[in-house]
Amino acid sequence: MVFAAKVSEIPDWGKKVVTVNGREILLVRAKGAVYACETDCPHQGAPLSGALLKDAEHLSCQRHGYRFSLKTGACREFPEYTLKIFPVQIAGDDVMVEVG
Ligand code: FES
């Protein structure tokens, strides 16, 4: 697990792009939970920093509206596309991410 950001740096119902081990990842915070995923949509590569947080567990790409689970990365409507999700642990105010 590697330090990625402070929880307090991510707006609630918001996002923050960070670089961990030389790799950009997107942190998403909703309802007290923090998720980490790849920054680009697995469909056609739109930057997910502009995606909509549809509810506390789903990110909707702004380009074509594909909706991805922030827990599993699954896209229910188009299961052939999966968003890469990185495991997150919260330690105090620190967001720790396993980038593998
Ligand atoms: S690029 Fe994200 S849904 Fe098409």
Q: Can you give a write-up of this model?
A:
The protein has one domain (2-97): 3-layer Sandwich (Rieske Iron-sulfur Protein). The protein is built from no helices and ten strands. It has strands at residues 2-6, 14-20, 23-30, 33-38, 52-55, 58-60, 67-69, 85-86, 88-91, 94-97. The protein has a four-stranded antiparallel sheet, with no helix packed on it. Strands 1-10-9 form a three-stranded antiparallel sheet, with no helix packed on it. The chain is globular, with a radius of gyration of 12 Å. The relative contact order is 0.24. The structure holds FE2/S2 (inorganic) cluster. FE2/S2 (inorganic) cluster binds at residues 41, 43-44, 46, 61, 63-64, 66.
Structure characteristics:
100 residues; 4-stranded antiparallel beta sheet; mainly beta; globular; Rieske Iron-sulfur Protein; binds FE2/S2 (inorganic) cluster; 3-stranded antiparallel beta sheet
What is the CATH first-level class name?
Answer: Mainly Beta
How many strands in all?
Answer: 10
Strand content: over 45%
- Distinct ligands: FE2/S2 (inorganic) cluster
- For this entry, what is the oligomeric state of its chains? single chain
- Identify low-pLDDT runs: none
What class, by secondary structure content?
A: mainly beta
* Total number of helices: 0
Q: Helix and strand string, N-terminal first?
A: EEEEEEEEEE
Sheet with the most strands: spatial strand order: 2-3-4-8
Mean pLDDT: 96
Distance between the termini: 9 Å
